[in-house]
Amino acid sequence: MIFRDSTPIRDGFGRALVDAAARRPEIVALTADLSEPTRVHWFAAEFPNRFYQMGISENDMIGTAAGMALNGLIPFATTFAVFAVSLAHQAIRLSVAYNEANVKIVCSHGGITVGGDGATHQAFEDLALMRLVPGMTVVCPCDAKEAYDATIAIADYEGPVYMRVGRIAGPIIDQGRSSFELGKARIVRAGDDVALLANGIMLAYALEAAELLEQEGVQARVINLHTLKPLDEDTVLAAAHECGAVVTVEEHSVLGGLRGAVAELLSARCPTAVEGVGVNDTFGEAGEPEEMLVKYGLTVDQILAAARRAVSRRSVVTEA
Amino acid sequence: MQHNKEDLQNFANQIRRDVIRMIRHAGSGHPGGALGAAELFAVLYGHAMEHDPQAPEDPHRDRLVLSNGHICAALYSALARTGYLPVEELATLRQLGSRLPGHPSRTKFPAVIENSSGPLGQGVPVAKGIAQANLQLGFSGHVYCLVGDGEMHEGIVWESLLSAAQHRVGNLTLIVSYNDLQIDGRVSEIKEIQPLGEKLRAFRWDVTEIDGHDIDAVTNALVNRRAKPNQPKAVVANTVMGKGVPFMENLAKWHGTCPTEDEATEALEAIGTVPGYQDFTIMEKAEA
Predict the structure, then answer these.
(1) ipTM of the complex
(2) Does B132 touch chain A (CB under 8 A)?
């Protein structure tokens, strides 16, 4: 499948689900009145007998998906991030995760780039909340191509997964010859002066910042942490050890998500200067995606400033 | 197949004895709802469900999803008395490392406990999902889901009632153990759910209302599952919390109170001994 720079990330999911389902008859899909926005409508058209329209009932959808998984199906449950993660958290925690049910929860409209719908529909905390659920794999692909590959990967993986697929279109990122592997970070750019750890749409911004840092004589290593959990600890530790300065970049609250995961690891295993670019502890508001990114500090300039701060704080690091 | 009423009543009474002894030994637990549902468990495991403890993962098995997980002492007893675990293991209720925690855990007891439950309402969509997967995969089993009446306050239940009818999940039977009691008092005074049968009918379910302690009535309601294959079934079973132990009957206190040693003795005397059954052994803890 060819993806263009104008392809929304969620399209990668929608196309991959159809392809995965052609291969695996156990795959079914559910939605809570959001088939087109989540791109599960392509699946519904292709496999109408394996598609379950649940109406506006997210708790029911997640619980039903859990039951289906306990009986051998591979359900993909789709809605917006706020509705699954916040509204149906009990069902996710109990019926999916504690049961170890093989449910894939795939949500669009995570993060700040939702647009004019405003704060009620913007989930800045979805990845953090899902990280805290034992046994949950948490994935946030960077573009439509990676969303396609991630969807295929999670369909083949046995166990509960939360995946956020953004609403907007972004560039398809050249990730060299690395292929998508769940739980394995992708090093997108080499460098030893500072490590920029990013996921989702912010990976493109981190790469742009890295090019500008090079003009200042700073070689930035850019790492795509598409799998937030389980975290690729070896790759993060090596980056911290070899660069001595780390910046996390995420379209998410700076609490509990990528910065949280990285800081938890490094504070225990390799104390390092960590700067975080993300949404501060606040709700969003209505606005165009590009305006929102600027207002809430998710910009190349903010990444540059954070990288400079991290480099200035860099100290000699020794393994604890 | 004709049921043996006397055998099933004996089974129910043995469940009651087990419930009292398990909870007394554990030092905590939920006796009231478990005692009140003893006939329901006895008929499900003793007659209505097609199941085989030698083949607990048979995809065509009938299943019970216990949604009001706090009454699990009765479930554990029914499972033990039909061969899914040694009856002596009932003495491990709520202990560290046991397969029988205070609320059922699928991962602690794989292939036997169908669903982890405790937070109320959550089991209803899970039961429905299992039933829908049966239809999708061509498995013949019927899925029963047991809920308490206070549990009907949870919104998720009504979401699932709507979609079960919409999706014509005819291989699903919801059983409501209706004793009109919840922790803080009478359901009818806290948040009335009547007329429950009418509500369920309005939600397009096939509804039967019965005396939940009448073995014949329970049996007839629970084996009636092949009728109306495209319509989900609801059995409103009128029950008495604490049934069989007079001083516990109809008192909200016994939702989650452990009887004292004297109370347990009195309860067991009230229930009486059961022909054909023996109580499980409680091993004395080794003195250090």
Answers:
(1) 0.96
(2) yes
